[in-house]
Amino acid sequence: MIVLRGGTVxxxxxxxxxxxxxxQATGLIVEIDQDVVATKATTHPxxxxxxxxxxxxxxxxxxxxLHAHLRDPGDEAAETVLxxxxxxxxxxxxxxxxxxxxxxxxxxxxQVLAMESRKRGALCDVIVSGTVSExxxxxxxxxxxxxxxLGVSTFxxxxxxxxxxxFLQRALEYANDLVTDSGNGCVIAQPCDLIxxxxxxxxxxxxxxxxxGLAGCLGLAEELMVGRGIALARQTGxxxxxxxLSMAESFDLVREAKAAGVPVTADVSPHHLILxxxxxAGYDTAFKVMPPLRTDxxxxxARQAIEDGTIDAIATGHAPHSPDAxxxxxxxxxxxxxxxxxxxxxxxxxxxxxxxLLLGLLSWQPAEIAGxxxxxxxxxxxxxxxxxxxxxxxxxxTVEPVGLASRAVNTPFAEREFVGKIRHTxxxxxxxxxxxxxxR
Amino acid sequence: xxxxxxxxDLSADDLSGLxxxxxxxxxxxxxxxxxxPALRGKTVVLAFFEDSTRTxxxxxxxxxxxxxxxxxFSAGSSSLKKGESLRDTIETIDAMGVDAIVIRHASSGVPxxxxxxxxxxxxxxxxxxxxxxxxxxxxxxxxxxxxGTLEGKRVVLCGDIQHSRVxxxxxxxxxxxGATVTVVAPRTLLPSSLDHWPVEVSKSLDESLExxxxxxxxxxxxxxxxxxxxxxxxxxxxSYGLTTERARKLSQxxxxxxxxxxxxxxxxxxxxxxxPRVAVLDQVTAGVAVRMAVLFNVLGPGQFDRDDEADPASxxxxxxxx
Lengths: 440, 322
Fold this sequence. Notes:
The structure holds two protein chains of two kinds.
Chain A: E1 2-5, E2 8-11, E3 14-17, E4 19-23, E5 28-33, H1 37-43, E6 50-53, E7 58-61, E8 63-68, H2 81-90, E9 93-98, H3 109-118, E10 125-128, H4 144-149, E11 154-155, H5 165-176, E12 187-191, H6 195-198, E13 203-204, H7 207-212, E14 216-217, H8 220-236, E15 240-243, H9 248-259, E16 264-268, H10 270-274, H11 296-307, E17 313-314, H12 323-326, H13 343-350, H14 355-362, H15 364-369, E18 388-398, E19 417-427, E20 430-434, E21 437-438
Chain B: H1 12-29, E1 43-48, H2 54-65, E2 69-74, H3 86-95, E3 100-105, H4 110-114, E4 121-127, H5 133-147, E5 154-158, H6 165-176, E6 180-184, E7 199-202, H7 205-209, E8 214-217, H8 223-226, H9 233-240, H10 244-249, E9 255-257, H11 270-273, H12 280-299
Parallel strand pairs in B: 1-2, 1-3, 3-4, 5-6, 5-8, 6-7, 8-9
């Protein structure tokens, strides 16, 4: 038995000071009460109790990331399932949705099944998603029903996204009827970028792109794609999840759509809540990301959107790239930033947000979207799987790119000091992170 | 100066100081033996990752006239062809112990990136659409020589502003030295956001002619037609070309400039090229003196010694992880 003593439990039902007892054998929470050590633990003298003093810390359901590129197979120099899952565990995640834009991509049953062996030894649940189209080419639907039968519930042509409105409409209709082997519905997740308007863009089109002499991505490219997605979700009645929104106009569109009952959900990435396009001023490719870092006004709108419920989840968009790739000239370097290990600390430090609101965005809300509600982001109560984090809110630390668990080092938060860190992560009752260190 | 990356990093005094220094080097060039031992023992590498005639030749002559040792390196005949990365290429050059790297690259920001990988001084010889600081200096030098000063002068900059490193660096240099700048271009060739630039915008070259002390024409690249930014060079010439009719409307002492190479019959009509107000060859001449001034400023006595600073590669970190 693991006893977590003296912490404050926070979940969707509120917060209170309680001790939590976890049975490693079953991976379940077996007891949760005030001062359990003084009562029940002592009444079972035969059992081994591993008592951890977590006073001053918060206990919460483990986080769920809807958007992680693990580069495995294809670019194992940048990340593997194992290294990515370690970064995730250190960041407090007990489940991450692995994007299907690997090489080869996850567009058929063989590739999806092959992920099982890559997941062996992982430090969290790695949820495999599938592509919407074969080869992510947007021409031919991938065998989504077959993949759903293997447990895939999220389908995305992440990267450029589906550009053809007719294809997106048919994909939404087809996916909406599918049910996974565990009875979950399926969802299309769509990055919002109309490439006719953004092709060649290296950063947000605005004051900074003009000064730096870098081709810009027009914000309108996102807004138009968000509008198109919402209209198609309304038309088809199918669930659509909009990935990593970044523009003030996009948040307004989603807010209106939700008010009108359109079945859309949406996420935003930590870097779009914290950084602006000004970060690109030194041509540091660590700040090159798609969608690009936007303006102060967009950051303010993103913060508003997570506070008023327009945005359902914060998803890291974790996109490792090897140092060799990121050291190319700015216009030749790939876009993307690391996110898993720093997301919580960055958000807790930089945003003035109620903790329960932040935890909802990181844990139980994305768990619902990914169909993981029964296993992740659950209320902390007896009988639930022990997928949980222990947060030390006072721990200050500096982000050292080399020290991160990811194979790549492309964090946009290099040398930043954060306050708040994941002290322990328990996954199925096992310590995968103990005292700020991965256990394997 | 430690490096010369962008005009933005220089004050008006810095700019004037460089122009004054260039003036003394111009005098050197008129000697029988146009050479001084100022940079003897210093090694300068010209690393041109993009084709160039005048900038490269001009830097080459400038370094020789200062008695520096010179290494010419071009992307076409280097290990870059074997797939060597930019960083490895720069670190290789650095390991041989050079004092300055003059770099030209088609991608904006490369000179700044390169400073992280070398102890040498880095001089930007043109990067993407971003900056071409020695061009701005030689242009300012030419104007100062012809008109005495830039203070209060009205410069009209005409053409493809969006894709022009010359425009970006010249606007900063001219305005810092007291000139006012008006840009004239079709909307498709202007940056989307000009609010933060110290310029006026005009849609009509004809309306801007009479008021201008300097008319600076930018080169039009043929690929702009393929991107539907312009219908044709013919249509560009009709609205934005310096035709003989338009040249007549310019004042007698207006300075007509172009960074070269010129598209005769597009930006400027062939007959206008020989007009004495055209300063294109003066610009080229000034280029050598200005680049001598820049090299001397960066490498001359009392300047930075490459061994004084900690190894910049120490910040490179987990490179081998890949």
